[in-house]
Amino acid sequence: MANTSDIRNGLCIRFNHDIYKITEFLHVKPGKGPAFVRTKMKSVTTGKTLENTFSAGHKIDDVRVETHKFQFLYQEGEFYHFMNTEDYTQIRLLEAGLDRSDLMKEGEVVTVLINTEDNMPLSVEMPASVILEVSSTEPGVKGNTATNATKPATVETGAEVNVPLFINEGDKIRIETEKGTYKERVKE
């Protein structure tokens, strides 16, 4: 058993007969009244997001997890197949349990959180950023650079990202996975 002072991003807890992963939290100590923790949680089984407020000192039932490196193999319908990079065992996860499945390409190595009690995979954590190739985008209009102008671009995985006007088809770009935003162009 843990309490509200142990809450951090990535912590998995049992709440309302389900397992949730904390995605955001904020400790609040108002001038008047007791302190509390405002959280945003995502269900690892359904993918639904829930906001909840815990009072300070509230006991929470944390789930012990282990992290393992898995390589993304392929997608089949709503299932994503992964292979453990150490012992080559394979697992499959529902798309709802993945945070940014639209930014995952085949061969990508991700971190999978596994419940130590029943060895069931809980969620997939992407690397901080991924490098993807731009498959289609409109050409930038010369002279349209008075402000930080952007245009939509589709990357090799099918995700759409807003990029600066100087990005062309075939360019490789680094995308921040947490927000799904353009970070920089990658030179080879």
Helix content: under 10%
Structural class: mainly beta
Distance between the terminal alpha carbons, to the nearest Å?
49 Å
Strand order within the widest beta sheet: 1-6-2-3-4-5
Radius of gyration: 20 Å
Q: Specify the CATH architecture of the largest domain.
A: Roll
Number of domains as seen in the coordinates: 3
Give the C-level CATH assignment of the largest domain: Mainly Beta
Shape: flat
In round numbers, the mean pLDDT is 85
CATH fold call of the largest domain: SH3 type barrels
Strand percentage = over 45%
Number of strands: 16
Task: Summarize the helix and strand pattern as letters.
Answer: EEEEEEEEEEEEEEEE
- Largest sheet composition: 6 strands, antiparallel
Number of helices: 0
Give your account of this protein's structure.
The protein is mainly beta and 188 residues long. The chain has 3 domains: 2-62, SH3 type barrels (Roll), CATH 2.30.30.30; 65-125, Nucleic acid-binding proteins (OB fold (Dihydrolipoamide Acetyltransferase, E2P)); 129-186, Beta Barrel (OB fold (Dihydrolipoamide Acetyltransferase, E2P)). The protein contains no helices and 16 strands. The strands form 3 sheets. It has a 6-stranded antiparallel β-sheet with strand order 1-6-2-3-4-5, with no helix packed on it. Strand 13 and strand 14 form a beta hairpin. The N and C termini lie far apart (49 Å). The mean pLDDT is 85. Residues 67-122 form the Translation elongation factor P/YeiP central domain. Belongs to the elongation factor P family.
